[in-house]
Amino acid sequence: MSVHVEALRLELGERCLLAIPHLHIAPGERVALVGPNGAGKSTLLRLLGGQAPAPWQGRLQVLGQTVTSGAALPRDLRQRVAMVHQGLHLVDRLSARDNLLIGALSRCQGWAGWRAGLAGHYPAAIAAQADAWLQRLGLSALAQHRVDRLSGGERQRVAVGRAALQRPELLLADEATAQLDPQASAQACQWLDQAVARGSLISVVHQLDLLPRLASRVIGLRAGRVVLDRAVDDSPSLQQALRELYASEPDVHPFDGAGAQEGAHAWVRA
Ligand SMILES: Nc1ncnc2c1ncn2[C@@H]1O[C@H](COP(=O)(O)OP(=O)(O)OP(=O)(O)O)[C@@H](O)[C@H]1O
Prior knowledge:
- With 270 residues, this protein is of the alpha/beta class.
- It has a single domain (3-247), classed as 3-Layer(aba) Sandwich (Rossmann fold).
- The protein is built from 9 helices and 10 strands.
- The protein has helices spanning 41-48, 75-80, 96-102, 110-118, 124-136, 152-166, 182-196, 211-214, 236-247, and strands spanning 3-12, 15-25, 30-34, 56-62, 65-66, 81-84, 170-174, 200-204, 217-222, 225-231.
- The strands form 2 sheets. The chain has a 6-stranded mixed sheet with strand order 6-7-8-3-9-10, with helices on both faces. Strands 2-1-4-5 form a 4-stranded antiparallel sheet, with helices on one face.
- The longest helix is centred in the middle third of the chain and has 15 residues, at 152-166.
- It is globular, with a radius of gyration of 19 Å.
- The two termini are 37 Å apart.
- The model is unreliable at 250-264 (pLDDT under 50).
- Bound molecules: adenosine-5'-triphosphate.
- Residues 12, 17, 35, 37-43, 53, 257 line the site of adenosine-5'-triphosphate.
- Adenosine-5'-triphosphate binds at residues 12, 17, 35, 37-43, 53, 257.
């Protein structure tokens, strides 16, 4: 099982941010987390990545290993789980290429490998993978540019490339298409899919029209609870369930989230 959650509860002060009795995600699954702003999507993703904002109760296994509240993911598990954060977390003073290569550091064997990587001397096979990904991401011409001089969308591509170089078995992507133009967003779904290969992909998705490209299963959260869990298809009942998921938050329009673009909700018919 890629993710196995039982009796999970995460509280912060008086507030319950997550309450999930069971959640299982199988190896290779493509899962989209959807729901209104503040529903707990990013909190769940961070928890799966060992970065919960507060202590939690319950049982959590990620890629078959037990994760403990208050502790970071064990080192070997950190190598197998990649995250594309909302804030991207790139190293600003390094080039796009070096940021991609950082993703591969955990694959360099032993201290000698680490030191070589940190000095910029990566094994030729890894350097070739970075160059191939830069090309795929349309970043070859910007490979040597510092990432703090790149546009938001270019930086987002770098973050996807870095995750790909990690060769993760589980990829957690938090609005990884938020800053991309519509064409690049559609491409990014392919990039994420390729980045994780036969592993599992869990993405927070605001652009519902991307659901069929990004996921085969959609999990809807509201107020920290799973209120929708079903296959992504084009059925009227799913469309209706998604409308209800967002409509139940009268103050929040589903398509006002950061990164929502013109026509982003076209997949959910009016
Ligand atoms: N570190 C924190 N301290 C206090 N509150 C937090 C913290 N992290 C998350 N929250 C709260 O938890 C709730 C869920 O936040 P989360 O970011 O998971 O929502 P989300 O579904 O990802 O929302 P969005 O779609 O707006 O990104 C929010 O009400 C948020 O204010």
